[in-house]
């Protein structure tokens, strides 16, 4: 069980630290105040305005898009951000496990790996291991909490690595957008396809496969059917040990998914969060994600 080192917990192991990127929305999870968790933010730019993920709200960003008709651009962290974090932790004798956004969606994991290799070559005895989560949003924080909990058993870095690989392999990701406009403007779907899809109310349900690739697994004509189908797809992975729900200004739909999964799997832990401006810049308002982790 995860124990926050600060909030009155009994965790005693402080040599294992976690590094996440801002896609994991750690600030909306129990990791928020944990000194063992460090976040490297991605960047967003709209016109002449640039900010790090988390500095602006979704409402602010969507208002900027509405006013200008232009989508924001996003970028991964500079390698220097990872070098700074890894160097500070390694110099302090900490062992580091970094869990990054799906490598198909962003090059962040590759940048983190380059930084880790450089720091380990410069600081003797340092141990920094970087992992591609093959997912996005709050399940990455879920993985981090599980790793920290397992570390409390006295697990070695090799054991933690194998444990995390299992968490990644057993995590299934499903999401759907409420408008195709952002995907179309971002070049991920043709203008005609977006127009027809919006007129007919067609919404794709996307799954991230074992290679981290995005695969459309179904298409529905109403939001209600989207949510029902997402629950069916997620539940097909039973037995399940954890559920995560992420949304961009779709709190009612997130609650619908939470309740539906709890009806099917009473007592199962469910973590519900929003998403940051980086993901929202590509997926638009109303995007909803449902993530499950299969039991071993």
Automatic annotation (TrEMBL):
A single Gene Ontology MF term assigned here is: lipid binding
Gene3D superfamilies cross-referenced by the UniProt entry:
3.30.1180.10, 3.40.50.10170
The record lists the membrane-crossing segments as 268-292
Instruction: Kindly give the Pfam families that the UniProt entry links to this protein.
Output: DegV
Q: Which domain of life is it from?
A: Bacteria
Key words, A-Z: Lipid-binding, Membrane, Transmembrane, Transmembrane helix
Question: Looking at the keywords, is Transcription present?
Answer: no
Q: Which InterPro entries match?
A: DegV, DegV_C, DegV_domain_contain
Q: State the protein's name.
A: DegV family EDD domain-containing protein
Name the species this protein comes from: Phascolarctobacterium faecium
**Lineage of the organism:** Bacteria, Bacillati, Bacillota, Negativicutes, Acidaminococcales
